[in-house]
Amino acid sequence: MTRRPEADYDVIVIGGGAGGVGAALGAAKAGAKVCLVEKYGFLGGAATNAQVLAYCGFFQQGGEPRQAVAGAGEQVLEALRGLGVKAQPYHSETTGNWIVLLDPERLKVALDRLCAAHGVDVMLHTRLAAVARTGNRLEAATLAGMDGRSRIAGEAFVDASGDANLALVAGLDFRVGDEERRLQAATMPVRIGGLDPDLKIDRNAIKAAVDTYNERAEFKINRSDGGIYTRVPGSSDFWWLVIDREMADLGSRTFTRAEQSGREMALLLVDVLREKVPGFERAWLAQTGPQIGVRESRHPAARYEITYDDVVGGRQREDGVARAAWPIELHKEAGKPFYQSIGADGFFHVPLDAVTARGLDNLWYAGRVVGADSLAYGSIRVMGTAFATGEAAGTAAALAAEAGKAPDAATVRARLIENGAMI
Questions:
Q1: How far apart are CA 412 and CA 394, in angstroms?
Q2: How many CB atoms lie under 10 A from the CB of residue 238?
Q3: What are residue 67's DSSP bridge partners?
Q4: In the chain, where does the domain assigned CATH 3.50.50.60 lie?
Q5: What is the pLDDT of residues 316-362, one digit of tens each?
Q6: Which of 303, 326, 299 shows the shortest CA–CA distance to 385?
Q7: Which residues, including other chains, have CB under 8 Å from residue 173's CB and lie 6 or more apart?
Q8: If one looks up domain 186-288 in CATH, what number appears?
Q9: Does pTM top 0.85 for this prediction?
Q10: Cα 239 from Cα 232, distance rounded (Å)
């Protein structure tokens, strides 16, 4: 790997969620010296910072689970299994999709160990503050950490921030929300303790409790089916996805109101469960957050936007560098998700141009930053798919750092397949 004398790293990845971890592992496996920057004190993204305790997108829809993501994503599942988490496909009774249930604390350790094993330099408690740009290339990132500001230079960069923070400070064009600037609702999952591990939960009783809650509450719940719930692996805790909040914009006050109202809703919900649902008499609110689950923010300009037709047609293509298998899932109205299945073989390809920035020659995208129209975005944003797009972005960035120019799709595909990815 050839690196400019002034460059500290071959690849700098901003964001330590599924996309960022996938990018860091992909780049490291391709031979790059990698820095992974994360604002929280742990990796994992929504799985660890928003209690989204299920990986979606590892498997296709259908009567039996069919794997769609391998490579870096499968390495994460193997690491979880090594820590005692089953990490096997679980069929959701509510949606009919196949998911992987998670233990967030073991996941944090698994990701730490994986990054260390691949020589990734992880910087936690660190935010991106600014970038240095020369023409169509990024040169360096200014980071704000616990010890103040520092500057690191790199040959190639991956924006896996979820909110397109790197693209934003680099001055790229972006869309907020859908084509009409509407944002999908945010969700605050809750974790509830105090249940008997053998308790069989009655969905009708849960639905009735939600009705009682809505009679008493200022902030209403719109999920008439009782929401999505399961037990947290390795515990008797009850995980419940039922609180949704409308997001009018990306302003701090909007996020503050969503966070505060979500916590109020969670407290009252648990009170109602204790009163109304058999087996919940000793229930207590174990956790919300650390933050509300954000589905959508900025969409930076990519060289290609995956379209609705690509998804529903199950489009497969020679320049594809990742599989996406989660159905279109949209939350334009809080508490009323909309699903649409993928056609043809049940997956579609994410092309290299969709993970490549438009306007910068050495920036790639991972996770929910990937180029997609507002409908296709409902499919590509999930964490299982993010591992795949992240690994593709990190591999492309590493190959670009090595060759001094952006690689073509065939070269990226070949390296991904060599390193165990499923395309």
A1: 10
A2: 24
A3: 59
A4: 9-181+296-418
A5: 999 999 999 999 999 988 888 899 999 999 999 999 999 999 999 99
A6: 326
A7: 300, 301, 358, 359
A8: 3.30.70
A9: yes
A10: 6
